[in-house]
Structures are given as structure tokens and as C-alpha cells.
Amino acid sequence: MQPGLLLALLLPKAAGVPVTGSPECPCVDVESGGYGRGCAAHDINNSAYPQCMSDAPPGWCGDMWCYVNRSNCLVTNEVSISPTAPPAYWSYTTCGYRDLFSLNNITDSIRGQTLRVLFIGNTGGWKGNYCTDNGQICVNQRGYGPVQRILDSMTRSSGFNLHQLNEAPEAVREHMARVNPTGSQFDLCTWATGMGFVDICGCSMVMLPRRTDASPFLTLWTEPVVLVGPLRGNQGLGGDFGAMLGKAFRPLSPGLWGLAVVVALSMSFLITMFEKTEGGQFEDVEHGESFGSGLFMAFFSLVTFEVQFAPQTVGGRIVSLGLAFILILLVSGYTASLTSFLVVDNRLSSTVSDLNGAIRLGLKICAHRSDSVQLLLNGVKEENVVIQQSRSVVLPSVSEGACDLAVVRQEDLEASQAQNGGSFCQLTRIGDPVTTSFSAKKSGGRAALSARDPGWLPAWRFALSLTAAIRETVG
Ligand SMILES: *[C@@H]1O[C@H](CO)[C@@H](O)[C@H](O)[C@H]1NC(C)=O
Ligand SMILES: *[C@@H]1O[C@H](CO)[C@@H](O)[C@H](O)[C@H]1NC(C)=O
Ligand SMILES: *[C@@H]1O[C@H](CO)[C@@H](O)[C@H](O)[C@H]1NC(C)=O
């Protein structure tokens, strides 16, 4: 019997994935006494990993992997280096598993270590790292805010310590001066991390290509940008007086208002007729005057939604009851639809429902310079992108009419609406986030570029490099 066949019979078979691995990266035989040969959970009960023999083994212990030939492998694989044997390459991916072993190993490798952190100050939102005095920027020092809280919780859960650096090392600043003299503190910080002078860049930042390119080891979280535009047809209370008066009549159609006037007038006429008879309200009143009063009371009843007559005759009272009933119908209909009008007014969304709508209509969109490329990538014409130099002027530029819509960070939208006395509350978020982010990971000597669905990722952005830790990783 062929050894491969025997192996296939003995080893548990992962659903769909052959024991020989995926054709893109077939398993190979290595002289290792069966360990790592063919897709199997080789580390379960493996005494080389005491944690796999514990009562609560890490997830990777039961995951399948095999040794592979890197020259013949197109998927993620890692290498084990030993002083006594040639490098051995292995892959979880080819067996249909993500490599949680390396991840675990990385987390383990920083436990108890002291990592160098460079803090960059943030303004313009509440998710960053800022100093106490009037939101002033912290220059190269620990401030407070979400960046600090996330670092604190990470240091606790992963058991590492922080050593704060006070500035980027000279070599990084020289690199910056050479490559991008006008670059920002954020560029400097990510480069310092990518170059291995710093382990953690502590700040909230927008990930730009020149930053993601800094290192294949950067772990990134990014907050998507959202499209924002004015609510349609909502004048709020700021509309002109005429418009406000006009609104009062909108709940009922002009026809219905006309009908109400005609009915009220004719019923008032009837009441006046009855009340002109003996014992009635207008018995002793002159003809002209009584009809004048009748007319006045008819309109007065209409605007107050209440019968203003004081009828004395049976006929007058019966018609008054009828009038009162019609007024009740009118007032309930009016208030009910007035309410729905006000609610609908505020719920009406913008003139477009997503970015594609904006592109179709050729609307002008304001964006911070770092977000403008997102718009171009998403197909917005260059002449319709209005680039702003500061995040804080993007939303005002929509209010001031410089553009029809804007793209901003969700954080900026929320902060502006909360902090400016409601002055941006007429703006609303439109459709899905517009970000298209790309993440690149170097694997097996190849760079794999994959488009990632932005979705709703964690609200803060944070770059953490584990360069040193990964370099140590051997499997
Ligand atoms: C691991 O070892 C324990 C005790 O020796 C045994 O009960 C268990 O079945 C083993 N698990 C596997 C998957 O071999
Ligand atoms: C790995 O694959 C390449 C190309 O297929 C081959 O030339 C090489 O001999 C293989 N190495 C081993 C150790 O099998
Ligand atoms: C990572 O895995 C290798 C190979 O098993 C091991 O020698 C090394 O100690 C691990 N690192 C940590 C920090 O556990």
C-alpha cells in the first residue's frame, strides 16, 4: 500500500479539503516521523506544546496544517528555523484553517515585554489622544482619551508594559527629510514603527497609502468616511415667516379648507335664521347686524374649532350640534396630519440616497484632502471633488453652499452636531460608508493585496506594529 493512501485512511479528513492540502499549495513529505505530514491536527496532545495538553488548550492546537514546499505554494505559509535542520515551511491555509498559531505566538511573544511607544497628539474629535488644556495637542506625550484607554486595556490583557519615547529617533527624521520633507507627525510615527525603532504608534490617524506602505507588519484599524448631505425640504424654524404661516395650512388641502368654510358658513347662516325667530339669540337684532354677527361667529368658530353661537331655539341648537361635530372632525384631522407633517419633514432624507446617486446627479462633494482620493476611487469626477485642507471646515462648507454634499468621518459628523448648538443638525448621513480600504500583507515573499469591505469597524484607528515580535516568530 502506498504511504499516501495509508495516510489518507488514518488521518481525519477535513470537509472539502484533501489531506494532501489544497492544489495551490500541496503538502509535502518531510523527514519528521509523520509530524506535519498531510493535513491533520498535528499539535493536539503534542508534548512539545504543553499548552495543548492543558484542560483549556488554545484554539490552534486542534487546527490542521502540514509542511509545504514554499517554491510550490501560492498561499500563506510560515517558516520554522532550527539551528540543526534546514528551514521547514508549513501552512494552515492549505488545509483550510487560518493561522491562529502565529497570532497566538505573537501575542505570547509580547507578554511581559516592554514596548516602545511614541504618542502623537490628536485634535478634531474625541477619539484621539489629547491634553487637558483646552484640547491642546500633546506633543510627544501621553495625554488622555480613547487611544490611552485602548492601550491601557491592551497592556492589561496582553501583559506588556509601555516605555514612552519622547521623539522619533534621528534615523527616522533623516528618512523623513529625504523622502517627504513636508510629511506630518503621523507619517513620522508610522515610519518609525515600520522601521522598528518604535513598537507602537499611539494616536488616532487616517490610514493613507504612504502610511500603510510603511511596513508590512502594521496592524491597522480604520474608520470609514460617510457621505453627508442636507435634509430635503426641511426649513426648520429658521424658514421665513411666510413659509412658516404657509405650513400651518398644509395639513389640510385647499379644497378641504374651502369645503370647511362653506359648510361652516352655511350652518352659521342656518343658525342665524333659526335664532332670528321668537325667543332666539338674534330676535331683537336688526337684519344686517344679525347676519354680520352670524358671519363673524361662523369664522370665529372655524378658527377656534368651537361653536361660538349661544342658540336659544331648538332648530338653532340642533344645527349648532351639527356644526360642533363637524368642527371636532376638522380639528382632529388637522392636528393628526400636522403631527405627521412635522415628523415626516424631519425624517425626509437627503436629495440622494447614496454616492452613486450623487455621481449620477453630478453633485459637488467636499472632502478633506486625505479623503478626496476615496471619492476619486469611487468614481466621482475630479471637477466635482472640492478638496478642503482641514477636517473642521468640511461640514461648514456644505452649510455655506460650497458643495452639495460632503464626506467626513462619522466621528466628525457626530462631534459637529453635538458641539455647535445643533447648527449641523440639518445634515444627515447618506447610505453606506464610502471607504474602500486595501490591506497588504507580505506572505511567503509575495505581497497579497486584497480589497476589504469597510463595514463598521471599531470606531478608532490605531496602528500597532509588532515588527520585533514577528521577526522572532519561528514555528
Ligand atoms: C489526548 O490525550 C488524552 C489523554 O491522554 C486522550 O484522552 C485524548 O483522547 C487525546 N486526544 C486526541 C485527539 O488524541
Ligand atoms: C520544491 O518545489 C520546487 C519546484 O516545484 C522543486 O524544484 C524543489 O525541488 C522542491 N523542493 C523540495 C524540497 O521538494
Ligand atoms: C513561538 O513559537 C516558537 C516555535 O514553537 C517557539 O519556539 C517560541 O518560543 C514561540 N514564542 C513564544 C513567545 O511563545
UniProtKB/TrEMBL annotation:
Keyword 4Fe-4S belongs to the record: no
Domain Ionotropic glutamate receptor C-terminal, residue spans: 256-355
Position of the signal peptide: 1-16
Keyword annotations of the record: Membrane, Signal, Transmembrane, Transmembrane helix
InterPro entries reported in the protein's UniProt record: Iontro_rcpt_C (IPR001320)
One GO CC term on file: membrane
Molecular function per GO: ligand-gated monoatomic ion channel activity
Residue ranges crossing the lipid bilayer per the database entry: 255-274, 294-311, 323-344
Keyword Iron annotated: no
Protein name (Swiss-Prot/TrEMBL): Ionotropic glutamate receptor C-terminal domain-containing protein
